[in-house]
Amino acid sequence: MRLRLKPRDNSLFDLLSQQAKLLPVGTGVLAQLVGSAPEARVALAESMRDIEHQADEATHAILRRINETFVTPFDRDDIYELAGRLDDCMDDMEEVADLVVLYRMGELPTGVVEQVSVLQRCAELTAETMPRLATMKNLREFWVEINSLENEGDRTHRQLLSDIFDGRTPAGTDPIEIMKIKEIADLLESAVDGFERVANAVETIVLKEA
Predict the structure, then answer these.
(1) pTM recorded for the entire structure
(2) CA-closest candidate to residue 32, choices 41, 24, 19, 20
(3) Which residues of the chain have pLDDT under 50?
(4) Sequence-ordered list of residues with C-beta below 8 angstroms from that of 106, at least 6 positions apart, any chain
């Protein structure tokens, strides 16, 4: 670890941690939503939208802080990247919640519930890890575990697509319903991929700071 001869603004670590803490909150609401009856989903989607707005505000606070800070704790472009990747994860999840309501989805396939379960584990791990950026310790297991979860998410997504096109979901063989479920499944896959991009951003920071 190279010596630091200039003071740095460590408040960015706190802001990143605050941003990441919203992710398990969002995945928790999303898990409730996909497992709820249709009439209960509108309120949950509104909650999800509120959480996404909080995440946007947290992201903007980070960007403002970067622009106001002369010496950042690590490369400012990497901070921009990390904050943006965290925000992307929340955006995908909020879009899923919105589409489930807008599409008036009925019962959702088990595969969707499994995808959300993977997201919950990614979100919890990410929220636990962000505070450790301040010390740069014990971070390697984060991107290793996230990579493993992303692989699990890939397998879940592929199985769900197989079930969708074989008519083994509540959509049956209705082409419109199949399209709706596939779009939701693809967005959930994008959210899981988003967590891997977060992990890649953390790995980049650690390698540069080593």
Answers:
(1) 0.92
(2) 41
(3) 1-7
(4) 38, 170
